[in-house]
Amino acid sequence: MNGEPPNKPEISKPSSTPSALSVMPGVEDVPSISPYVEEQRKNYKKSSIDTQLIANGILQGNRTFLSKAITLVESNREDHNDLAQEILEQILPHSGKSIRIGITGVPGVGKSTFIESFGNYLIEKGFKIAVLAIDPSSKRTKGSILGDKTRMESLSRSDSAFIRPSPSSGSLGGVARKTRESIYLCEGAGFDVIIIETVGVGQSETQVHSMVDFFLLLMLAGAGDELQGIKRGIMEMADLIAINKADGKNEPFATRARAEYESALHLFPPPESKWTPRAITCSGLGGAGIQEIWSLIEDYKLTTIENTYFQSNRKEQMKLWFEETLKEAVLDEFYGRLGVRDKITAAEDRVFSGKSSVLKEIKDILK
Questions:
Q1: Residue 208 has pLDDT above 80, yes or no
Q2: Is 318 within the bounds of a domain?
């Protein structure tokens, strides 16, 4: 008050003694969860799943247990895969009694409508049907974009049908080891006919062909091979070509297309099965041709069992499954080694910059 400016508050120097408000240096690279706790969590979850109970339930035809087992098969978690293998070991001796049918065709050909009509026909004949539908997947979420249960409403309500739309997770063609294992689980559950529906885009047909007994190709009338995206190689794999949607105004066009495809099939070399592939017309919507298709499938099975191709083909498929699984396991083990991915990145940089050759870098990585 004496005209002197008020004293400025003194700013205290930092104390060497840490206060409650001090930010202390942290520990770097702290794991989000203790390795011990993570291990205990895995062991708890593993012990909480009774594989014997699930396997017994599957063998009794329980679809809830079947769904649980397929979920374990499809999981990317190592502990889930271990549980799935325990279940499969118990199911495999009871598998192999079904007829496995692959059905393909480009989107829009009417696969789901056909399968629903075909499945309902077989159920009326007393068969149990399982449909493993390989859906296109979202590359972001790795989940199915389409759900086949929504497109096979009538069939999905039947107690004699099991429909499993499986996300392809962006894998080549959308099918792999997991589909094969799901087939064995469905057979163990007592399903007589296993249908594998593919998205009909790219390599999925080749993979499905290597895991089924009979391969059915659905086509449309009035569209050339280029428009339908069907390659010669896929037609060569087909045991039967069915021109779908052969009803109403489309019927004469379908009849003409059938004759054209029948002629084309004669130009291909005879298949190892000694079966003569043929072309017919059908209507998934109206049901025309469904009975004839099943009759041809039964003829195919009888013919190939008599000439032993049916049995030898399944052995070859099992061998292929073994080789593919072995390659996958070796690659997983290799990429899982400490420092391998860093070596690969460095090697790629040297190759891209022209400092080294591809073969030299690969040999160095494998040392």
A1: yes
A2: no
